[in-house]
Amino acid sequence: MHAATETITPPKPLLRGVSHEIAAGVALAAGVGLVLSATSPRGRVAALVYGASLFTLFAVSALYHRPTWSPRARLAMRRLDHSAIFVLIAGTYTPLCLLLGGARGATMLAIAWGGALLGVGRAVLWPTAPKALAAAIYVALGWVVLPVLPALRALLGAGDLAVLAAGGIVYSLGAVVYASRRPDPFPRVFGYHEVFHAMVIVAAALHFVVGARAVLALG
């Protein structure tokens, strides 16, 4: 008589969530500084929304990945974690859309937050969606900015536009790592998910440069 085969869950990498825990503290300080640097109501709103979304993404990610949750609690935290990604995408768009202004800026803002709302709905109602599908949705919403890139170039300059594009590319490559689970350099310490988290930090830092410039341009 053979013993029943048990499903063994691989141990969580030692550094899972550590980088985002550190990034949450940096994001909080950067967000506060950005709000204090704004001098106009529109600038303050842009800074507050963007800064809050950035901090939320890293704080929720750290809270999800650092502790060892029960299966039920883990599923609830996954809903929050995946929702926070959509909130950050829309939050990153906010300073840029306010800087664009007019009907074009308002339309882009509505698309960004409308898409984020749909994404949050997916995260809440279908938290176990395939990684490839989830990654594709993140990337699609992240690149809806393409039609207004020429207008942003006129407002921010070619250099900032290049930084914005670089951040988008790093985010997109990170989504590929997330979906494919490769590379997975040191599974017990620093695995594919840690690579993904590191790429999110790099991309967020690049976008913060542009977001801060947009806030300062708003006054």
TrEMBL record:
The record's keywords, sorted A to Z, are: Cell membrane, Membrane, Transmembrane, Transmembrane helix
Q: What is its main location?
A: membrane
In which compartments does the protein localize?
Answer: Cell membrane
Record carries keyword rRNA processing:
no
What are the transmembrane regions? 22-38, 45-64, 84-101, 132-149, 161-180, 195-216
Specify the protein's topology with respect to the membrane: Multi-pass membrane protein
Keyword check for Repeat: no
Instruction: Note one Pfam family from the annotation.
Output: HlyIII
Protein family membership:
Belongs to the UPF0073 (Hly-III) family.
Q: What is this protein called?
A: Membrane protein
The species is: Anaeromyxobacter oryzae
Q: What is the lineage of its organism?
A: Bacteria, Pseudomonadati, Myxococcota, Myxococcia, Myxococcales
The gene coding this protein: hlyI_1
